[in-house]
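Re: weekly structure request thread

Next one in the queue (191 aa):
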Amino acid sequence: MTKEEIVKALVEQVVVMGFKIRLITLDAGFYTVDVLNFISQFNYIIAVPVGDVKVYEEFDGDYMTNSKRHRRNEQVKFRLLVYSKEKVRRKEKRLVYFARATNLEIPKREVLDLYNKGRGPIETSYRNIKAFLPFTSSTKFVFRILIFVLALVLYSLYTVFKGEVGREEFRLLLILLFFQIYSIQRILQLI
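Done, posted below.
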């Protein structure tokens, strides 16, 4: 599926469930002309790779895409917000620039806060799910999906039980559970 098809499918699923979309926030991986054209019908904030827009200073203004895959009349105009953060790496301070595209007419700080409010929990949940992932160097897509789904199930179980047990206790319980399943399987093979 193309990125536009993915976004359309997800929006359709949300609408079919009876929800009204008030705001769409997307990661930089979805910054394409086709996706921007589609989501322009909604309020949106999308991360933009600064290298794509080549704006390396604080900025809040109109911007037009310059995709080589689309004609001039197919380009998308939007409000571009570029902001900087000071990063310290090996005792060296430098400014790093980030960009957001939006069609919201609210102050820049509010746009950035809305994006962080929407994307922050998603990024945190992926980071937490990855903590449950076993390491694999397999290139088999099906196996990697299976491992991810397993990690998702384990993380979901953890979120259900986290009020009762801590993370390390939960891991020990899982180890004991898998050991019990393995032991039962071995006993059944011997019978």
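The mean pLDDT is 85. The chain has six helices and five strands.
Next request, please.
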